[in-house]
Amino acid sequence: MSFLNLTLSLIFVLIPLILSKALNLGLEKDTIIAVVRSIIQLLTVGYILHFVFTSNDYLYIILMIGLIIGAATANARKKGTSIPGITGKLIFTFLFVELLTQGILLGFGITPPTAQYMIPISGMMVGNSMVLAILFLNRFASEVHAYEEEIELILSLGGTPKQAIHRQLITAIKASTIPTIESQKTMGLVQLPGMMSGQIIAGADPIQAVQFQLLVLFLLLTTAVITSVLLGFLSYPTLFNQRMQRVKEVNPTD
Question: Which of 118, 173, 207, 235 is the most buried (most CB within 10 A)?
Answer without folding.
Answer: 235
